[in-house]
Amino acid sequence: MDYDTVHSHRCKSTILKAEHEGGINDTAMVLVGINDYTDINPTCVSNLGYCVVDATNIADLLPSFGFDATNIVTITDGAATRSALLLALMGMGCASAPGDVACLYY
């Protein structure tokens, strides 16, 4: 499936779900944690040590601040591709309504 097809389907699914449930959740978050930058610098000098742990810990903590766990997307290391980030951000955007809180943590 190409990006436009996925985006269109995701937006329609989100809107239908929101109508069925009587509203759109008011908080959503995309968290990105990348430790492994080996593709950029094969010597591993650019690698980081705590980004994945930080993103994961924040994702675990957010529900205690009112974030619905189903509206939290965590993307780490090799999964943090351009396509994955765009899909997650577009999905968050499609699910958002005026007054909602939508956050990106990188």
Structure, described:
This protein is of the alpha/beta class. It has one domain (3-105). 42% of the residues lie in helices and 16% in strands. The protein contains three helices and three strands. A three-stranded parallel β-sheet has the order 2-1-3, with helices on both faces. Helix 2 (51-61) links the parallel strand 1 (27-33) and strand 2. Helix 1 packs parallel to helix 3 (82-95). The protein is elongated, with a radius of gyration of 16 Å. It starts with a helix and ends with a strand. Residues 1-10 and 12-20 have low confidence and may be disordered.
| Category by helix and strand content | alpha/beta
Q: Which percent bin holds the helix content?
A: 40-55%
What pattern of helices and strands is seen along the backbone?
A: HEHEHE
Count of folded domains: 1
Number of helices: 3
Strand content: 15-25%
Unreliable stretches (pLDDT < 50, length at least 5) are 1-10, 12-20
Instruction: Calculate the terminal CA-CA distance, rounded to whole Å.
Output: 27 Å
Largest sheet: 3 strands, parallel
What best-fitting shape do the alpha-carbon axes yield? elongated
Assembly status: single chain
Strands, helices and their partners?
Blueprint: H1 3-21, E1 27-33, H2 51-61, E2 72-76, H3 82-95, E3 101-105
Parallel strand pairs: 1-2, 1-3
Summarize, please.
The chain is of the alpha/beta class and 106 residues long.
Defining traits:
106 residues, alpha/beta, 3 helices, 3 strands
